[in-house]
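User: If only I could read backbone structure tokens as easily as an amino acid sequence. Underneath my words sits a plain record pairing an amino acid chain with its backbone structure tokens. This is the protein in question:
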Amino acid sequence: MSAPLRITLGEIFSEQGEAMQMRLITGEQGLYRYIDHPRMQKPSLAFAGFLENLNDYRLQVIGQTELHYLATKPPQAQKRAVDAVFDLKLAGVVITRGIEPPAIIRDAAERTQTPLFVSALESSTFMTDMLLFLSKRLAPKTWQHGVYMDIYGLGVLLTGASGIGKSEIGLELISRGHRFIADDMVELVRSSPGILVGHSPEALRYHMELRGLGVVNIRDLYGAAAITDTKRVRLVIELIAWEKMNENDRIMDEDDMICIHKVDLPRVRIPIRPGRSLAVIIEVATRNQLLKQRGIDSNKDFVQALEDRIRDDSKGN
């Protein structure tokens, strides 16, 4: 399940107006308009008459250069250029450096109900800071059922059927000194290609549900050192019933991978049955993944050594 990748101009102004030193000049009626891309545009070519690549779902930034260019045109040409741009029903326009908008821009914004802002920041600073904010807010998101832990500094996502014991295992890992991030529903954000970051939804943060006990607050029970807010996902551990584990899965020739939200992640499948210390096994699986990231793969080394021994014995015979 993915969230819609958009943010309204009203939300931008509410969340970043003070930090970006923004003032709303006109266009309150259009604050419901939204943008769906973190990159902004400067309508320099649009004021020159080339409107083809102007995206009305991106934030438009007008700086000193654009205003100086407009000032070189006769008044009627200025009005035609500005009206042609604002007639596209732009999502929103920001004028930087604290420059008060010329009357033709203000009038065009009022006529088209386009939100028009002024920011005291320079264009480069405003666009850099706003890009950072929008990249985070518009990053693709999905939700995954499971328990998310920070184990030895590695983001480990525990998955499995409902009732298999994920929360109980997570609690045991917390008692062994590892840090809790999320329980039941994990919010996953693809912050950049190949990178998935997980954290808890705000409503569930620090809380874990345990059958028989109800909902407990991990921060209150174990202290601030037992929790962390976010971590990059580096390993998925799937907990499965022992009887559903294939005998051929005991030793695998190749790494098992799972694709979550268009990101390939290493996966370890651990069978559950009474008497197994699953917290210890998960710790070992995490340490083993850390070794793999350093280029050390015990499973492949064992298989290779076994093949070498068989080959040497064959030559001897």
Remarks:
- The chain has ten helices and 15 strands.
- The two ends are 59 Å apart (CA to CA).
- The mean pLDDT is 90.
- The first helix runs from residue 9 to 16.
